[in-house]
Amino acid sequence: MTDIQLNMDGEPGWEPFDAPALVGASLRFVSGDRTGNRFRMRYFRNASGELVARVWFGPETEGPPGHAHGGSIAAVLDEVLGLAAWAAGYPIVVGNLNIHFRHLLPLQTVVQVDSEVVAAAGRKISVRGRIVLGDRIFAEADCLCITLPEEQRRQLG
Ligand SMILES: CCCCCCCCCCCC(=O)SCCNC(=O)CCNC(=O)[C@H](O)C(C)(C)COP(=O)(O)OP(=O)(O)OC[C@H]1O[C@@H](n2cnc3c(N)ncnc32)[C@H](O)[C@@H]1OP(=O)(O)O
Asked: CB of 12 closer than 6 A to ligand 1?
């Protein structure tokens, strides 16, 4: 795993950020993958304070030969964009996630997930995100997050 972890170092102005800890220890499907064969990832906040993730799509995420399954891409966006809302102070679950798959995403490649909380209206929090490598956009997403009532949060937590 060493080489991959080295590749996942952040950029100037980025700070490592333990985003999954915001919701406890439940996120085992993506960031908490214990096998390391599905996903390996690290979270940061960039110089603007937005949540950014570096993600490695492992062999167990395969869909089209040699490339990531769309569901694995959706899983990553679900987690990162949901946590972007949590990191901005909104205790939410994801209610709706629309994804445009722009290019096939090659396996065993470290890509970047950018996020931006774009609006908050009542319980509805809108987050945008994308998965990129340099100029190449693999996927773009609009995510509608819904804040949880206190009682429901206590039941989950
Ligand atoms: C410690 C904790 C750990 C929590 C851990 C959280 C981890 C986050 C990171 C991982 C992300 C995930 O995987 S989350 C897992 C995937 N998501 C889910 O399983 C969510 C399942 N769905 C739900 O639980 C529910 O449908 C909710 C909570 C989203 C909404 O139900 P509700 O609470 O009854 O609220 P409801 O009245 O229906 O809706 C409130 C407002 O939002 C709007 N709204 C609701 N859903 C939608 C929708 N899909 N599209 C458009 N609008 C919607 C409604 O029109 C309404 O607007 P208005 O009338 O007010 O205008």
From this structure: no
Does the Cβ of 144 fall within 6 Å of ligand 1?
A: yes
ipTM of the complex: 0.96
Q: Which residue's CA is minimally distant from atom 22 of ligand 1?
A: 95
Strand partners, 122: none
**Where are the chain's structural domains?**
3-156
For domain 3-156, is the CATH number 3.10.129.10? yes
**Ligand 1 atom showing the smallest separation from residue 121 Cα:** 61
Q: How many CB atoms lie within 10 A of CB 154?
A: 9
Contact 61, 69 (CB under 8 A): yes
Is pLDDT above 70 for 3? no
pTM reported for the whole predicted model: 0.96
